Amino acid sequence: MKQTEELVMSEELVMSQEEDNISLTRRINQLKQEKKAVILAHNYQRPEVLDVADIQGDSLELSRAAAKTEARVIVFCGVRFMAETASILCPDKAVLLPEIEAGCPLANYITVDQLLAMRQKYPDATVVCYVNSSAEVKAASDICCTSANAVRVVNSLTEAKQVLMVPDKNLALYVSRHTDKQIIPWEGGCPAHCQLGVEEVLHMKVLYPEAKFIAHPECNPQVLEMADCVTSTSGMLRYVDQCKAKEFIVGTEEGMAYVLHMAFPDKIFYRFPHSMICQDMKRVTLTSIVDALGKKQYVVNVSDEIRKPAMDCLSKMMNIG
Ligand code: SF4
After folding, report:
1. Is residue 104 lining ligand 1, measured as CB closer than 6 Å?
2. Which of 53, 75, 167, 262 fits 41 for a cystine, CB–CB 3.0-4.6 Å?
């Protein structure tokens, strides 16, 4: 009897949550029109947030979308460095981050003072900073990269023999296997990706022997060695599209499994639900988007002094593609 009551209660809760989501979505669409806003959402956002987004994608896709949009207001459903990047690229638009506390622990691994100290230690090195970094760190770097283009960016530096890559160590080690340049990695990492261990992957491979294992380059090198494909989230979409396999183990933040499922409903995607969750990405909710649009919060600004060199760093990357 008790179990039946609990089941009915949980069904009621799910139904009322769905009703809330429908009315919040309606409100968001209304406000979006009124404010002439566009909603961008990173692939790691909650499903209901992805569903209200005008554009979803990885950092590079969203940076490009931000630069092209004609909307006056950009609501960036992601973390701070992403909203900063949009603000650098679109200084004449209001860029809103719905959750002020949504930061990136990986980006926090390096400060501009630490980077300047490294520059003194390696005066001949070209500094490549991952887009997951603060505007100040971008401003003090030579060129930016994303996980989708890191190898291409480093190999485009024809004059450089030594490359200092910040702040993600695993991405730097991955790039070092695809270039003849000397890569100096910074000791930073993404908690959501670094937590994934060999044992967990082995366990999933035993459970789903037919599945291809796709992994993000922010994962540990030992994990990447077990992957059928190492790629960014946009690369995962392309790989699954071209691959004949029907099942995939998704080695990146768990939200990506939803994006893949929506894009390829006939295929099956397995996730690592307990280890690969980015708490910062999950802070954004439909309610915080309504508040962002209604109260015009939280505006992310980058000062001109930082914006100009940071823009230079981003533009060089975007010219490479
Ligand atoms: Fe940062 Fe990792 Fe979260 Fe991405 S998934 S925002 S790199 S902590």
Report:
1. yes
2. 53
Identify the pLDDT of residue 62: 87
Phi, psi of 190 (to 5 degrees): -85, 120
Same domain, 23 and 84: yes
The answer to the question of residue 315 being in a domain is no
Range of the domain at 92: 2-103+282-295
307 in any annotated domain: no
Give residue 178 CA to ligand 1 midpoint distance, Å.
Answer: 23
Instruction: Identify any residues that bridge with 269 across adjacent strands, giving them in sequence order.
Output: 248
Element (H, E) at 126: strand 126-130
For every residue of 173-203, which 3-state class applies, written as one string?
A: HHHHCCCCCEEEECCCCCHHHHCCCHHHHHH
Q: What is the CA radius of gyration of the chain?
A: 20
Task: Give the amino acid at 53.
Answer: A
Q: What's the CATH code of the domain at 179?
A: 3.40.50.10800
Q: Give per-residue pLDDT as tens, 34-78.
A: 999 999 999 999 999 999 999 999 877 887 888 899 999 999 999
Q: What is the pTM of this model?
A: 0.93
- For residue 83 and ligand 1, the question of a CB distance below 6 A is answered with no
The pLDDT, as a whole number, for residue 1 is: 52
Query: Considering its fold, how many domains does the chain have in total?
Result: 3
For atom 5 of ligand 1, the residue with the nearest CA is 278
132-152: per-residue pLDDT in tens? 999 999 999 999 999 999 999
- For residue 310, being part of any structural domain is answered with no
Q: Probe ligand 1: pick from 46, 106, 131, 232, max atoms within 8 Å of CB?
A: 106
- The CB of 284 under 6 Å from ligand 1? The reply is no
Give yes or no: residues 126 and 71 share one domain.
Answer: no
